[in-house]
């Protein structure tokens, strides 16, 4: 795949997610005793790298090259474990090659001894570690009587570092149970039209079908090595999974979880095969929209036609080197909106005419998340700065820019009641202020209230209860869920959880197009 070109600051966002630290286990005394040979300029030992293990002095190894990521670490201190090898995690999130946007941060490479030592340690790690992708065993741990809840009221909480889903009754705020061993870093899920089943994908490619009336597993299957997007057709018949590796979309029978078809994601227009990871997977009616993350493209699969053909191809969405990431549908299902990271705009498609409507400028590195609209305005946060862009859906022009403490991931509105006046947002990537949650006035497009659930602890992903009376917020670093009154903004209760990240209400997600 040709190298991608990015700006300096986009590199700060590019190396995201938690970087895995492979301990070097080498005493600094060995270095002081002259254990290592004299090195050429720009060559480093593992000890050299390990000494730069602080937020304000952060070096990382990627593919035996050494990068000074101090600037990025200062901006996003919770995302890095500095002083070690981040190769594995980098490639999981950014593809098989080091992108050119990392060039400004390259300071050298490992010396020969370091290469040998790192290779030896990796062999040990591979042989002894509990590897991502290993067989899973999803099973429920119930805290109440089985079936004593309405599945539509359930709040499904992804416990990222616990390989589990926490299940809370949103009508009582009581923890119903936990679904354990559901895969490495639970990522996305969709729900059957009746709300009785959830289809969950983990980052290591395990798709699990859960009966929400009992929390028991129906079946689990391996659909990829590294997976992200999940879609379920509106009729509930087919599950569609988007993979990073292999670079395919997988279509399965929702009843049996048998694979029906795989679609390779690639481009041959320049005379060679260039493949792409799948970004967002969004369903609407008989169509499934797939974002091709690395090819600046969106494909549309028609699920009503025999063989599930790709019927629409949209190319040149952004410039070469841009990354297309997440996307969402407006609540009426009329518009499909995708984030174009690099060119810093969202791309808008009319789902009825299937024609491009607009390209609207946003903050740096837009991240749409599941989407939020209020009236004729839709809201788009940004990964590159503390800015939420409010876009007029009549003129398709920015209407307001709402400043926050730093980069955000999710913004949510309550689409079941047009009279509800507020939109909620987070800023978990802020250098200072990642503990803040924002309440935006939909009428004035200004901040109504700034909430701090747990001072100093990262707050993320506000989600409404089914009736709209409450908003759940995950406090990642504090292992808590805060439940707020959606009108008074007072804390109603807190709930214990292990690294809570994504939160979904079953009833709302069933009713909301594309989710």
Automatic annotation (TrEMBL):
Keyword Transmembrane: yes
Boundaries of every Cytochrome b5 heme-binding domain copy: 41-111
Keywords carried by this UniProt record: Membrane, Transmembrane, Transmembrane helix
SMART domains for this protein: Cyt-b5 (SM01117)
InterPro entries linked: Cyt_B5-like_heme/steroid-bd, Cyt_B5-like_heme/steroid_sf, Cyt_cd1_C_sf, Haem_d1_sf, Host-pathogen_enzymatic-act
UniProt key word Iron-sulfur: no
Transmembrane annotation, as ranges: 12-31
Protein name per its UniProtKB record: Cytochrome b5 heme-binding domain-containing protein
Species assigned in the record: Candidatus Azambacteria bacterium GW2011_GWA1_44_9
